Structure formats: structure tokens, C-alpha cells
From TrEMBL:
This is Peroxidase. The active site is at residue 66. Residues 1-19 form the signal peptide. The keyword tRNA processing does not apply. GO terms for cellular component: extracellular region; plant-type cell wall. It comes from Solanum tuberosum.
Amino acid sequence: MATLKFLSIFIIYFAIVLGFVNSQGVEVGFYKKTCPNVEKIVKKAVVDYVSIAPTLAAPLLRMHFHDCFVRGCDGSVLLNSTKSNQAEKDAIANLSLRGFQVIDAAKSALEKQCPGVVSCADILALVARDAVSLINGPTWQVPLGRRDGRVSILSEATTNLPTPFDNFTTLKTRFGSLGLSVKDLVVLSGGHTLGVSHCFSFGSRMYNFTGKGDMDPNMDQKYIAQLKTKCKPNDVTTTVEMDPGSFKTFDTDYYTLVSKRRGLFVSDATLLTDKQTKAYVLAQLSSSGSTFFEDFGVSMVNMGKIGVLTEKSGEIRKKCAFIN
Ligand code: HEM
């Protein structure tokens, strides 16, 4: 009898603890009762825009990343600046983000069906997933239940976003401090199979690597010569494809490029300087097949859990560019 009593107390205690832990985080199916069509509605917005303009997939994926790395995945990257405050959106790294109209379209469709229920931070996470899968990439289940933050500060984006000049140690520290592993780093870097980069993001590798007008010895010198025909010194307007030939489709090419020392950024090249990340890069090229697609979904879910606001913190914005 005493054992039974002890057992039931134990079970109740466990249920409470589990419930508590769970309610702190995000979960798949969070809107099952409150907005059952959320995934369909978001996907429609993505299909409407991205099937007409496939180059939008890249900045939409990047938008979720830039949201999560600054104050957590709280939609703070979507907020507009005000007279008294410059927002994350205005940081240099965010000036090339595009596709805010897709987020707005999803949000206004959702507000019609389930007003005040779905956060902009969750919309971003779903849009990133749907954009990737629409252009031949993997798909994954997105845990939901994030709430929107009320704060967005330009200088926090400048400080917290990785730069294209970061070396391995810096990247490892940046990712690690947000709870992401070295594996997440090498997997998520594979997002650079999509999209374009401005010449200035890797200009010094071509024209002035150590301040003496030299080139980065860790980049394929023939590739630099090719890139120089597109990017002139101090060029601030031209963009080049990061995965030339298939920058609009999600594939494993990024790892081929990095292995050939043709990744555009120091942050890409540096993946060859660590044993673990180098092994991952090379494994993606092996004949036994790549694990990148599966891994990408797992790491995107990990990234999507950074610093989330849940329960009573934050709010559900009515419009994604403004706090309520
Ligand atoms: C590891 C640290 C990272 C660094 C240093 C970095 C840096 C950059 C830079 C400098 C650009 C080009 C910006 C420009 O010149 O316009 C870029 C583009 C891009 N990044 Fe990253 N990135 C990193 C990680 C990621 C992650 C984790 C993702 C997503 C999972 C991602 C997705 C993208 C995409 C899709 C683009 C192309 C955007 C477009 O076409 O508009 N990056 N990144």
C-alpha cells in the first residue's frame, strides 16, 4: 500500500515536472486547437511568392537565422526602426534581407482566420522551412509556440551576427554560446548553397588580405582570378552567386565548393581548419551518400529553439513590423 502511494506521488510529481519542462519550450502542433490551418496558410503565402521568385528562398532562410542569433527567435529582425530607436533591420548585415512581404502576407492571412494567435517568430520559422523545401531542399517538422519580442536594437545585430571574416574559434564560440554545436555550425553553413553575396563580403580575400594588396592563400587562386572579373576593388553593388550554377536550388554543392577552396567567405574556408568540420565537409562528397538534408532539418530545429519567448513573455504581434 505504502509502495503504491509512493509510486502515485512519484508519477504525479514526474507529470508535473515534465509538463513544466515542456511548457517552457516549443512543440510541434502547438496551434492544433487555436489555429489548425496555420501550416497550410503559411505554405500558401510561400508558394504564392517563391514559385514566382525562387531567389526569395535564400533571404527568407537567412532572415530566420538572423532573427534567432539576435535576442533569440523572437521576430525582432522584423521590427521597423522608430524615431527614437534603430532596429536590427538597419544593421549592415540585414540590409540585404528581402522577402518581408511574404511574412506580411502570411501574417495577414493568419490574422483573418485566427486573430492574435500566431506569432511572427513562428511564421519566420515556418517560412524558412517551406522556402527551403519548395526549392528541392529537405523538409522537417517545426516546433511552434514562440512569442514575439518587443525590443530590436541595431547594435545587437552588429555584435551578435557572425561575420564573413570570422575564423573557426570565433564561430565555435558564437554558436556555442547560443547552445549550438560544431556540427550545427558546419551543417547550417550549408545554407550557403543558396543565394548571392555582395563582393564586399569577401573583397579583402581578393584584393587586400593582409593589408598589402595580397590575396587569401586559402582560396583557390584561379577562382579568385575569376571572381575579380566580376568584383572590382571596393565594389559595393555587385553580387555573385555563392553556389554558381545552382544558387536557386538547395543541394550539397556547398561542400564541394568548400572542399575545393571555393567557399566565398573566410567563415566558409575555416571549416577546413578543424578536424571535425573538415571531416563533415568531405563526408558529404563521399560515394556513400550525403547526410546533409537530414542533418539540415535537425540543425534548423536546434537553431529555432534559441532564446525563445513562451508562455506569458512577449506578445503576439498584430503586424510583424510593429510592436502592439
Ligand atoms: C556561419 C556563419 C555565417 C556567416 C559568417 C554568414 C555570412 C553571410 C554573408 C556575408 C552573406 C552575404 C551577404 C551579402 O553580401 O549580401 C550570407 C548570405 C547568405 N547566408 Fe550566411 N552566414 C552564416 C551562416 C548562415 C546560416 C546559418 C544560414 C542559414 C541556415 C545562412 C544563410 C545564408 C543565405 C541563404 C545567404 C544568401 C542570401 C541572399 O541570397 O540574399 N548563413 N551569409
